[in-house]
Amino acid sequence: MAAAKTGKGVQGGIMQNPTVNCNFLLRVDGVYDLPCKKIGTISQELEYETIQEGGINDYVHLRRKPVARPFVLEVERYVCVGYFDPLPLGRQLEMPLVLYVSGNSGQFGNPVRTFTFYGCTVTGKTYGEMDAFGSGLLMETAKIAYQRLEIEDQ
Predict the structure, then answer these.
(1) Residue 125: what are its φ and ψ, rounded to 5°?
(2) Does residue 70 or residue 55 have the better pLDDT?
(3) What pLDDT, on a 0 to 100 scale, did the predictor assign at position 11?
(4) In the chain, where are the structural domains located?
(5) CB-based contacts of 151: which residues, under 8 Å, 6+ apart?
(6) Can you give the pTM of this predicted structure?
(7) Architecture of 19-153 per CATH?
């Protein structure tokens, strides 16, 4: 039996020190650091069609279809005093959107993982429920379509 390969962060097939996902920073236009409550699921999905060979062959081939839906990122953040919105509805970002994930709060100089989103367009905005009987915070959710994602581990 072959020995198991050991990679970075893995020892004997057991993952060591998984990344904490609650310390993150979203940078817009390389200038604005947005305080966010939550980054929704980062989704990428490709569609394939199956082609079955004829005759007595049992082979099925997969062929990738053209992308029919945009890849999506959702950003949820607080609306606060002095609110500035660098992500207005319909805006096409010329610079990439960068999401830094750090193991420690406020330490983003050397992030554990960096997500870089290219070709971003803000396709939707929703505001959280406002209720006179409760004392909640006003939330804004921006839905951002992107064309390409690069992920970098440190």
Answers:
(1) -140, 135
(2) 70
(3) 55
(4) 19-153
(5) 113, 114, 115, 116
(6) 0.77
(7) Roll (2.30)
